[in-house]
Amino acid sequence: MLNKRVYGGAMSRLAGKTAIVTGAARGTGSVIAQMFRDEGAEVVATDIADGDGVVKLDVTNEAHWDEVVSGMDQVDVLVNNAAILHLGPIERTPAEVYRQVLEVNLVGPFLGMRAVIGPMKVAGGGSIVNISSIDGLIGMNGISAYGASKFGLGGLMRCAALELGRSGIRVNNVCPAGGNPAMYAQWFDQMMSFMDETAAYSANRGIPGEVPLEGIAAAALFLASDESSHITGADLPVDGGAAAGVFIEGINSLE
Predict the structure, then answer these.
(1) 3-state helix, strand, coil in the chain (%, to 5)
(2) How far is CA 150 from CA 38, 92, 196, 237, in A?
(3) What are phi and psi of 97, to 5 degrees?
(4) Are 35 and 82 contacting, i.e. CB atoms less than 8 angstroms apart?
(5) DSSP string over 56-71
């Protein structure tokens, strides 16, 4: 159950709006879709995977996007959340895997943006929210494909914000440090051999630990709502201060 005391409770911040959320069958996308509904939006939840009330959408398929958007009376919000992950060094990352990550994580949001521009212009505006990552703000080893896709999403977001702002369409990125653990499940057994290092990655932040999915959804809600009416072309880190730098525990003991 969502903590409405922490993550909002007005229950009407998206009243009268219709939103598309991709990758909404599970994880972050599912939480975003439910929070948007709780705040009054009509939500078209989409995913390539099956799920209750989920509309089938392969974000890399232009025809799928056209079909989803053409079946809607209005589109006020698009949340580009669908993404895939690959972990491993560059020398052991197959080119076809690299391309697939870029197709889903970067071409997918591009196609989504392009599909909703027309309806949003007709409506007089809208909000496009991309769920990016801290890995689109700072580099890390072992995530060449994923990092490239998220850094690319930052460039796409900025260009789109400048192109579309005069049509009342805002474009922003949410950049969390965390998300659906299922994304890295296939590497979990291998990661057990360096679990201390992995734990330190999230421990050495201003606010230690992984960001809860509700925190990511709340940031998306803010950018989707009229509360952020003059925010566009921005990265919103939801990372416990990870992008700000590294916390060293012993420094606080110095006199």
Answers:
(1) 50, 15, 35
(2) 29, 20, 26, 13
(3) -70, -45
(4) no
(5) E--TT-HHHHHHHHHT
Residues that are catalytic = 146
Give how far Cα 76 sits from Cα of 67, 127, 223, Å.
17, 6, 12
Residue 84 · residue 187 · CB < 8 Å: no
Q: List Cβ neighbours of 61 (8 Å cut-off, separation of 6 or more).
A: 111
pLDDT tens digits in sequence order for the chain, 255 residues long: 344 434 445 569 999 999 999 999 999 999 999 999 999 999 999 999 998 899 999 999 999 999 999 999 999 999 999 999 999 999 999 999 999 999 999 999 999 999 999 999 999 999 999 999 999 999 999 999 999 999 999 999 999 999 999 999 999 999 999 777 776 667 566 666 766 777 777 788 889 888 999 999 999 999 999 999 999 999 999 999 998 888 888 888 888
Question: Rounded to an integer, what distance in angstroms lies between the CA atom of residue 245 and that of residue 236?
Answer: 16
Entry pTM: 0.91
